[in-house]
Specification:
elongated, 5 helices, mainly alpha
Length: 92
């Protein structure tokens, strides 16, 4: 089973259809469920990579993971960033 069987991917046309047809109550409900609470390391880029919130260092002494991009996620082990599980294989 693929994760897309459980969480379908919404393409731009599907999002546009929702935005054009959703009522105010539906928009408010959507914002309550999926609204962005805060943004860390904001970047002006055309695409965003989302990862699980669980890819972080467990011990405070290990510090924060660096700003993420595809290369960092794919090569996390060779960069010395993996403390438990490699993010690309387990979270993306």
């Amino acid at each position: 089973m693929s994760w897309t069987d459980v969480f379908p991917v919404l393409d731009d046309e599907m999002v546009a259809e929702f935005e054009s047809e959703a009522s105010a109550a539906e928009r408010e409900q959507l914002e309550g469920w999926f609204g962005v609470r805060r943004v860390i390391n904001r970047r002006d880029v055309p695409h965003i990579v989302s990862t699980s919130l669980f890819w972080k260092h467990v011990d405070e002494k290990d510090g924060e993971v660096p700003p993420l991009d595809r290369d960092t996620l794919v090569n996390a082990k060779s960069l010395g960033l993996v403390k438990r599980m490699p993010p690309w294989e387990h979270y993306v």
